[in-house]
Design goal:
By secondary structure, the protein is of the alpha/beta class. The protein has helices at residues 17-30, 45-54, 63-66, 71-78, 109-116, 132-142, 160-170, 199-220, 223-230, 269-277, 311-316, 318-329, 339-344, 438-449, and strands at 5-9, 35-40, 59-61, 84-88, 120-125, 149-157, 177-182, 191-192, 195-196, 255-259, 281-285, 297-302, 334-337, 347-348, 351-352, 360-376, 388-400, 409-411, 419-421, 424-427. Keywords: ATP-binding, Cobalamin biosynthesis, Glutamine amidotransferase, Ligase, Magnesium, Nucleotide-binding.
């Protein structure tokens, strides 16, 4: 498949990658192009903004969570029908995962750019430099000859004269300047304890910010040059990822509710696609607004998000909390991760939650962050005992106790973690099921078996 594409990278975090990538997606979309947004790494929040700009899901490309062999197939799956793809990087261009056993630079933006054979646009924060920008760009252009630096976008430029100095300095670098974006404080996206405020929580305000970013980038960046660069990316001789080829469908069609709305904004699109491919009917429930689970719900998935920000409103929705507890009590499968664990707990910061799990959670000053290689300690609706997965932790809350009598996982450097209780699996661990599709298949089977007389008839491969 031939998909024009660029990777938007930076020398370090906080250089403006998200703003430039979102603005680029919005500007190209405003031209009438179908733009496919992607994000390197496990981050859920940035894809919310680029996805909002594109009008299609922002999809993650993470060699740790899904395996590097799936990165290109997942990219092609997400980019179906697109005129161009924009891939936002993570941290600095060459900064990768630091988990033991991984080679330096694994899962970095450079790693993914190599896998995609995509040119890189480097976003440089020029606010505190002049001629030195040439040395910086030269270093990034020559550090790794397998990574093609196709252009530079100068960000936070102070004035016309500042821009002129920067362009002159880069004149002999061999790397074209594709644009220069001025310092615009009003475009700052609000942040809090885990980074940017998700786009889904800001609704009309987020739409306005994305629109304004598109206008700024359209006025400051040579979009034709970016498209020309994107079209230099060669064809990828790989078949797109197909969820239907990853799981075996079953007879029966269990209805599985997936939590959404402002409190539960973290989720990978591929997880839902795998549930559907395995035979489920997937519906959405908003724990802030809906007073009951959708009629006929036989299973529930509660992913990540910010329930701590919405704890009072979640607690006030007593009828839905009771419905969730009743589903778990009658054996309806429930898979919860991070925010989902908090929602199922007895309490969160002192206010009542669903009470499905015998644990209480509170906010903590400490950020827990990083990849984990975990093993399932017991059989559950999600995984049989002994299953090994690679996941990601990202939270500022602490649950006490951290594990139940039957824990969900164990990983290096930590004690047992999470809860397996009857038909409930809850943990802080975020998982992209595209890397472990058997999880989705097992969960759908459990949902069908919970409601069909005699259990579901499973079409094994």
């Amino acid at each position: 498949m031939t998909v024009p594409r660029v990777v938007v990278a930076a020398p370090s975090s906080n250089a403006g990658k998200t703003s430039v990538a979102t603005g680029l997606v919005a500007a190209l979309t405003a031209r009438g192009l179908a733009v496919s947004p992607h994000k390197v790494g496990p981050d859920y929040i940035d894809p919310g903004y680029t996805g909002l700009a594109a009008g299609r899901p922002g999809r993650n490309l993470d060699p740790v969570l899904v395996g590097e062999e799936r990165v290109v197939p997942l990219f092609l799956h997400g980019a179906r029908g697109a005129d161009v793809a924009v891939v936002e990087g993570v941290m600095g261009l060459f900064d990768g995962a630091t988990r033991p056993g991984l080679e330096p630079g694994f899962a970095s933006t450079a790693h993914v750019a190599r896998l995609l054979r995509a040119p890189v646009v480097l976003v440089v924060d020029a606010s505190a430099q002049a001629q030195s920008v040439a040395a910086l760009v030269h270093g990034f252009a020559t550090y790794d000859p397998t990574v093609r630096l196709g252009g530079v976008v100068l960000n936070r430029v102070g004035s016309d004269r500042h821009e002129e100095i920067l362009r002159e300095a880069l004149g002999g670098s061999g790397v074209p300047v594709l644009g220069a974006v001025r310092r615009l404080a009003e475009l700052g996206t609000p942040s809090r304890h885990l980074g940017l405020v998700p786009a889904a929580e800001r609704s009309a305000e987020a739409l306005a910010t994305v629109g304004r970013l598109g206008e700024v980038v359209a006025g400051a960046v040579d979009l034709d040059a970016v498209l020309q660069l994107a079209r230099t990316a060669p064809a990828l001789d790989t078949a797109p990822w197909d969820p239907a080829a990853e799981v075996a469908p079953l007879d029966g069609r269990p209805r599985i509710a997936v939590a959404g709305g402002a409190a539960f904004t973290f989720g990978y699109a591929e997880n839902t696609e795998l549930l559907e491919a395995a035979g489920a009917e997937v519906v959405t429930v908003d724990p802030l607004r809906d007073e009951a689970l959708p009629e006929g719900t036989t299973g529930l998935v509660v992913g990540g998000g910010f329930p701590e920000v919405h704890a009072a409103d979640l607690s006030a929705n007593e009828t839905l909390r009771a419905d969730v507890a009743a589903l778990a009590a009658r054996g309806g499968p429930v898979a919860a991760e991070c925010a989902g664990l908090l929602y199922l707990a007895r309490s969160l910061d002192g206010v009542r939650m669903c009470g499905v799990l015998a644990t209480d959670a509170v906010m903590s000053p400490r950020l827990t962050l990083g990849y984990r290689e975990a093993v399932a300690l017991g059989d559950s609706v999600l995984a049989p005992a002994g299953t090994r997965v690679r996941g990601h932790e990202f939270h500022r809350t602490v649950a006490t106790p951290a594990a139940g009598p039957t824990p969900a996982w164990r990983w290096a450097g930590a004690g047992p973690e999470g809860f397996v209780s009857g038909s409930v699996h809850a943990s802080y661990l975020h998982l992209n099921w595209a890397g472990f599709p058997a999880l989705a298949e097992r969960f759908v089977f459990a949902c069908a078996a919970a409601v069909l007389p005699g259990g579901a008839r499973h079409a094994h491969r």
